[in-house]
Amino acid sequence: MTTMQTREIVTAASALLAKSSVPELRSLRVDEESNELQLHGNVRSFYHKQLAQEAVLPVAGSLQVVNHVDVRN
Questions:
Q1: Which backbone phi and psi does 55 adopt, to 5 degrees?
Q2: What is the pLDDT of residue 73?
Q3: Residue 34 and residue 23: Cα distance in Å, rounded?
Q4: φ, ψ for residue 63 (rounded to 5)?
Q5: Which of 3, 5, 19, 24 is deepest in the core (most CB within 10 A)?
Q6: Which CATH code is given to the segment(s) 3-71?
Q7: How far apart are CA 63 and CA 40, in angstroms?
Q8: How distant is the alpha carbon of residue 19 from its chain centre?
Q9: Residue 56: what pLDDT?
Q10: For the CA atoms of 33, 51, 55, 71, what is the dihedral angle to 10 degrees?
């Protein structure tokens, strides 16, 4: 996968989260490292953490999605 393709995936994943109907997901950060699409940030529930992961899966391509989102009450 080229750097340009990877950047497009990160941009697409970030855009999906930014347009989410769930406000908490809009502030999450998406990075790429070592063929991983990494999610970072904080949410209030494990449900929101899972929603974030599922939201980016359709655009992840060959990148593995790694969810580093923290759940904070």
A1: -65, -35
A2: 77
A3: 29
A4: -80, 140
A5: 24
A6: 3.30.1340.30
A7: 16
A8: 12
A9: 98
A10: -20
- What residues pair up with 65 in beta bridges, in sequence order? 37
C-alpha to C-alpha distances, 30 to 1, 22, 33, 52, nearest whole angstrom: 18, 16, 10, 10
- The pair of three-digit structure tokens given for residue 56, joined into one six-digit string: 């980016």
pTM over 0.85: yes
Q: Which residue in this structure is represented by tokens 């063929």?
A: 35
Residue 66 structure tokens? 């790694």
- State the SS3 of the chain: CCHHHHHHHHHHHHHHHHCCCCHHHHHCEEEEECCEEEEECEECCHHHHHHHHHHHHHHCCCCEEEECCEECC
